[in-house]
């Protein structure tokens, strides 16, 4: 075999006159009057190679039988192109390689789609032929970026004394959280391992173990019904530290994230990141992962609405609900139909209707205007900062529904109006999440994050007064409307842990039943600790400017949790099941 | 909380006079005439802190209640120790810290074992309290070494353009190989994922996908009955390249391994590594993973034995078996009983007896001596390089049994005689493995490595003549008697693959049934490729000088595939099983 000397995409004018050996795939091939021009592609890029019977008759004859995606080895001389044939779109566009020797390393069938960017093709085909899909530059570049991002995470953490430690994949089913993937044990019939939803327990145990700084780029598993942005197995950058407080950790993590963005896509992110409380995020943006690239903040009108003539507003306000609105700047000229078209969208988030006011020619217009007094309208206009050409959209409901409806309308209208700049990266820490929320079904408080999340010191007295008021030392990192990371400081003092379990309605005995070995561990000198996990797939998606998590994963699964390439899951032999002491027990179709 | 300013183990004389804040665990505590001396430990090491009522009465009173493994934060001043109290065994032995303020961050129960190296304690206890075990310096150091080794692997490969790419954990059950761990699919009732035994198929698909250089520190799974040096989940450094030949790959891998050894334990390994063919390894050392730190090579005496008077030797030699021997230097003085004690060991490897000759006072002695002629004895002495004080041990059997018996005797005696230097690292590549071996049960050839292993070009004609003669482009890296890595160049030409399947007794249709999507992929322009995988757990074990794979893994499983810390596997709820459409089907105890 001809031994490669150069990469296709890296040959420059400096190589002119040199003999090079290239290996790669045929991107395309043209015959111009008996001279063959082939674009040869390898991982580094493309170079034009030329076969002319005058250079070498045999090589030309062989090249004549070559088709797209054939794998070639060629030896030739780098020459300058004629000025009129220079290709400014190609890194190597100023040169070409005159081939004197060719070896066809392998032929190729015609692929089911072209190996090029921006193809419009059913994703199922791309996934089935993933090995061809990965040859496309946009996929290759995403994988290269992913590899580079992982390297930067590791380098940064390594420099700061974090140890990379692997935690088990075959572990124990957890009583709380999402649905586990199970693995039957052959050695212990009737027993099962579970795949970890996260290394949470192990990373806390590592802190008890004196590791002080741990990280892992860890595979995690959740057997949930998949949405577009979920995968049954996903990757997180998992981090835990001892003897640091929340501010110290967040500061270090900002530095980390900034380095990842700088060194992958060359974007400088300003520090410190904005910090916004959970209350403020929900209040202003209707979301705990606000997209901060544009305004259109939610404005609270509950006090104003409490006594107004719009009955539904007044009634909601008086019953402890909220009345809020957003100002869709420039939509004051929308037709009634255009506004009504928003209703089905709003209903998806729980809206029962969608009240609105347009400002046109200095006047407030719309069906509900007549129920307001002049003074109320003036106050409304001021508060909403409403001008000619604006559209005010209202929501009156529970706090949660108002946030969902207006939060999502804000995003939709922001996108539709082009208010969102794809080249801007707006990070924020959302902090002060509530520690507990009251579960109406279970009639008890449940942990918002998990039962080991540390409350803020100054809120501990609320355990006895009103647990719903306790703020947690928990934080999410949000970027452009996505949650890209989250974590918390953990409880390390027994008396706080006891208060927490009591608030959750567990006796210490019940708590031991559920979390036995972790609570045991905590008895032997647990340091103050806390951590964070970044969603690596999603971060790569945002770095690469892709719209789909699957594009960031070499071999992803479909929304149906299927691997179309290797056809998994699949049936297995009876012998395998018997060895595992299990049997398939299909439910009748009706109960599915 | 007092904010840490320094790490315990890193305070030096240069810090004298400084105020420092330390966080850590109480290693031990002594009260000398009312002055308390505490060894405070964190990840970096130990420093002595001193509480004297004269420095601070309150701090002294608090410290008086402190016990081993309490977690402390202290503020104090670094002072030089009196010359007579300097501790030369401690990095920080020249200084101590006079404490002015102390905070007990957490108390601790008395741990079930001391936090110190070299403890003699049931491993089950260490595994159950792994979080305490990890605090012991030898465990912490092993995890630090593991983290560092991973970093060096990654840095080296990254520098050479390898992309780190994650492959699926939830994948398809493979028809060949070891037993799979299975994962029932909830979405596809009656179907199962399998956990990967290695990323083999995916890394080859990545080469088809044009990645050219791939690596991953990958978790792999095998549901085998465990031996001391096996874990159900283990880690390999998985590597695959395109457009390189075997020599180029092995050279690069040598450089990689040398760097790992240099930068972790400061050992310089000589390059190039010795290369030894499979035939030679079996012939000289009775093993395809020879320990090359000492000689005692196997000597072939089959020709000599064929006509000798020892009937069993002559008969074996005439029937195509082998007669070989090793020379245990210096064991010529062993008693009959000492020699006989080797028999049960030899029998474990298939020996039916153990013939021997001792050389004493210039004379050959032993029960079989009389069956040899003077000339034969002289020839034997020459070939065995036998001198006074030597013991020659014979094996006469099939090639395989002879290799097993003498290979293992060689190792045992080498160890017993102290011939093996623990500080020497003898690497070798074992190359030219046979491509195929004949399976007497299945009455067909089976692949020694896997069905995609590339044969040596010059052996391809043997497909038609004698497939057993074909040598593979397959290689193992051995170190001190352990296989620490292995791989092969892969078949990429269809006509060779067809010959291979034919030799294995498959039609192309049967082959497609078994390996469908990979063969499909190979049709679309597959580059020449090959790869290797290093056993990361084992490499770390050898680097750390540990005897047990479990000591290299933060949370390992027992030989019984159990996690004693979190009690996995365990029973799960009926609801979970129902959702997965499976049922436990315990076999009656008798059939277990």
TrEMBL record, chains A, B:
Residues 143-556 form the Aminoacyl-transfer RNA synthetases class-II family profile domain. Keywords: Aminoacyl-tRNA synthetase, ATP-binding, Cytoplasm, Ligase, Nucleotide-binding, Protein biosynthesis. Residues 200-203 are annotated as: Aspartate. ATP binds at residues 222-224, 231, 483, 535-538. It catalyses: tRNA(Asp) + L-aspartate + ATP = L-aspartyl-tRNA(Asp) + AMP + diphosphate. Gene3D superfamilies: Bira Bifunctional Protein, Domain 2, GAD-like domain, Nucleic acid-binding proteins. It comes from Insulibacter thermoxylanivorax. L-aspartate binds at residues 176, 222, 449, 490. It holds the Pfam family GAD. GO terms for molecular function: aspartate-tRNA ligase activity; ATP binding; catalytic activity, acting on a protein; nucleic acid binding; transferase activity. Signal peptide: none annotated. Belongs to the class-II aminoacyl-tRNA synthetase family. Type 1 subfamily. Homodimer. Its EC number is 6.1.1.12. Catalyzes the attachment of L-aspartate to tRNA(Asp) in a two-step reaction: L-aspartate is first activated by ATP to form Asp-AMP and then transferred to the acceptor end of tRNA(Asp). One of its GO terms (biological process) is aspartyl-tRNA aminoacylation. PANTHER family: ASPARTATE--TRNA LIGASE, MITOCHONDRIAL, ASPARTYL/LYSYL-TRNA SYNTHETASE. It is found in: Cytoplasm. GO terms for cellular component: cytoplasm. This is Aspartate--tRNA ligase. The keyword Hydrolase does not apply.
């Amino acid at each position: 075999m001809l031994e490669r000397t150069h990469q296709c995409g890296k040959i420059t004018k400096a190589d002119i006159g040199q003999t090079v050996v290239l290996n790669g795939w045929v991107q395309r091939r043209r015959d111009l009057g008996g001279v063959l021009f082939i674009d040869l592609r390898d991982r580094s890029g493309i170079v034009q190679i030329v076969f002319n019977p005058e250079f070498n008759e045999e090589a030309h004859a062989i090249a004549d039988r070559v088709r797209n995606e054939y794998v070639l080895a060629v030896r030739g001389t780098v020459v300058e192109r004629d000025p009129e044939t220079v290709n400014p779109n190609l890194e190597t566009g100023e040169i070409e390689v005159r081939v004197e020797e060719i070896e066809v390393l392998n032929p190729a069938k015609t692929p089911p789609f072209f190996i090029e960017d921006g193809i419009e093709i059913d994703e199922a085909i791309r996934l089935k032929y993933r090995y061809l899909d990965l040859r496309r530059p946009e996929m290759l570049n995403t994988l290269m970026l992913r590899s580079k991002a992982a390297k930067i995470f590791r380098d940064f953490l390594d420099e700061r004394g974090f140890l990379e430690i692997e935690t088990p994949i075959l572990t124990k089913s957890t009583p709380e959280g999402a649905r586990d993937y199970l693995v039957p044990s052959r050695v212990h019939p009737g027993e099962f391992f579970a795949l970890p939803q996260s290394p949470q327990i192990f990373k806390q145990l590592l802190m008890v173990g004196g590791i002080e700084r741990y990280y892992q780029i860890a595979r995690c598993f959740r057997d949930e019904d998949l949405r577009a942005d979920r995968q049954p197995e996903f990757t997180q950058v998992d981090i835990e530290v001892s003897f640091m407080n929340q501010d110290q950790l967040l500061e270090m993590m900002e530095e980390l994230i900034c380095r990842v963005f700088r060194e992958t896509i060359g974007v400088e992110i300003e520090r410190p990141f904005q910090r916004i409380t959970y209350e403020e995020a929900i209040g202003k943006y209707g979301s705990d992962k606000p997209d901060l690239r544009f305004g259109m903040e939610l404005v609270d009108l509950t006090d104003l609405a409490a006594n107004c003539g719009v009955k539904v507003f007044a009634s909601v306000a008086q019953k402890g609900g909220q009345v809020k609105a957003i100002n869709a700047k420039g939509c004051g000229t929308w037709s009634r139909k255009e506004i009504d078209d928003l209703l089905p969208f709003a209903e998806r988030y729980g809206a029962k209707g969608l009240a609105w006011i347009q400002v046109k020619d200095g006047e407030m217009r719309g069906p509900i205007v007549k129920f307001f007094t002049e003074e109320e309208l003036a106050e409304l206009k001021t508060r909403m900062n409403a001008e000619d050409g604006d559209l005010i959209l209202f929501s009156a409901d529970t706090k949660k529904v108002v946030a969902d409806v207006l939060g999502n309308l804000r995003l939709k209208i922001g996108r539709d109006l082009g208010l969102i700049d794809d080249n801007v990266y707006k990070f924020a820490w959302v902090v002060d999440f509530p520690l507990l929320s009251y579960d109406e079904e279970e009639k008890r408080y449940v942990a918002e994050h998990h039962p080991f999340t540390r409350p803020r010191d100054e809120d501990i007295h609320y355990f006895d007064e009103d647990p719903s008021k306790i703020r947690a030392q928990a934080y999410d990192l949000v970027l452009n409307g996505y949650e890209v990371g989250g974590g918390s400081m953990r409880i390390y003092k027994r008396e706080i842990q006891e208060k927490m379990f009591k608030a959750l309605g567990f006796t210490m005995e019940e708590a031991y039943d559920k979390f036995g070995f972790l609570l045991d561990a905590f008895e032997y000198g647990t340091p103050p600790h806390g951590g964070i996990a970044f969603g690596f797939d999603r971060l790569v998606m945002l770095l690469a400017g892709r719209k789909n998590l699957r594009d960031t994963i070499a071999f992803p699964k479909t929304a149906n949790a299927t691997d179309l390439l290797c056809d998994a899951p699949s049936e297995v032999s009876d012998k395998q099941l018997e060895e595992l002491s299990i049997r398939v027990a299909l439910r009748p179709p009706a109960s599915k």
